Amino acid sequence: MSTGRQPRFSPGSTVDGRYRIRRLMGRWQVGTAYAATPLRGTESVTLLVMDVRPAAVPQYLRWVRIEADQQRVVPAGLLTPTDGGHLSGDTVYMVLGGLRGVPLATRIRQDGSLDEVVAIRFFEALARMLGRAHAEGVCLGSVRPTNVFLDGDPEAPAPVVFDPGFARGLSRLLDYAPREAERFVAPDRHPEMPSAADDIFSLGALLYFALTARKPPPVDREGRRVVTPPSWKRHDSTLCSYIDPVVLKAMAPQARDRHDLCEELADELAALDEVFRLSPDARAVLGLQGVPAGAERRRHTHPHYLHDLLGLPEDRDDDIAPSGEIEIADPDEP
């Protein structure tokens, strides 16, 4: 653990002769964040001052150069490291794009669950953003309610993702590494080599959280417990039940049962958006009536019914609890 004190910067001061501090944004577990501006530019950036483990400065500088090189291919709205350097002792800094918007965690805490239409449009845009990043070889491995932001119009927000790269090797270099948000992390992930399948799981868990205002249940690595569909946790008359299969497929414990690509998840959400745009009369003609939340509770809970929601084959007896009944996981249990 570093024993040095991080330097504190006041508005107007310069960092490494390259950035001018505008204001303090906050003191986080991993370090201190500032809003800043390049001395040779006008754009707003986020400057994060951190302590690394003793003798890890050279490793950090190599790591941040690699991150900065790949930043040129990431889509707009995905804030990854663009620069970094050494200040003194074990203290380093990282530069990312200007942080904007409201964290999903804050939005849910203040206003409750998202409207279904707002949710599917926001997550379609988010899935397409991550799909473009995956196409360029950039996977995040750490997508959680606190680093996904809703920017702009509350009824049609644009996604912004703040990703310093914790899951891509930064955590092992830091003196104070952040804890994982376990319920939003794929159970079959590699600790330092995130994959597209990991991000798809996180998107499903985030969408569950956005629709229910509750954390997903603890991940079951063996697949014996089936997650309660999100629509069961809503109290209004809703179309949310149509989203259930999409969410549960993305959240499947094993990568082989999830969507193959973020674009596939985005296309399914776009199709649901088209259904939601139909009038109630048009949906009735097509047999797509809205289902009151909680109505599924009154159905016989046959194991294969929930298997269908998960997109699992019917012959997977290992997904049935020993009693022959499906064990329903409650997101509110510890």
Characterization of the model:
This protein is α+β, with helices and mostly antiparallel strands and 334 residues long. It folds into 2 domains: 15-97, Phosphorylase Kinase, domain 1; 102-329, Orthogonal Bundle (Transferase(Phosphotransferase), domain 1), CATH 1.10.510.10. Helices cover 29% and strands 19% of the residues. The protein contains 8 helices and 14 strands. The chain has helices spanning 57-71, 104-111, 116-135, 196-212, 244-250, 262-277, 280-285, 303-310, and strands at residues 14-15, 19-27, 31-38, 45-51, 78-79, 83-88, 91-97, 102-103, 148-151, 158-162, 225-227, 237-238, 291-292, 327-329. The strands form 4 sheets. Strands 1-2-3-4-7-6 form a 6-stranded antiparallel sheet, covered by helices on one side. Residues 291-334 have low confidence and may be disordered.
Describe the strand arrangement of the main beta sheet, using strand numbers: 1-2-3-4-7-6
Summed up, the domain count is 2
The total of beta strands comes to: 14
CATH H-level name of the largest domain... which superfamily? Transferase(Phosphotransferase) domain 1
Beta fraction: 15-25%
- Give the helix proportion (percent range): 25-40%
Gyration radius, rounded:
22 Å
Number of helices: 8
Alpha-carbon distance between the two ends: 31 Å
Order of helices and strands: EEEEHEEEEHHEEHEEHHHEHE
Please tell me the CATH architecture of the largest domain by its name.
Answer: Orthogonal Bundle
Q: Kindly report the CATH topology of the largest domain.
A: Transferase(Phosphotransferase), domain 1
User: Can you tell me the overall shape?
Assistant: globular
Secondary-structure-based class equals: alpha+beta
| Biggest pleated-sheet summary | 6 strands, antiparallel
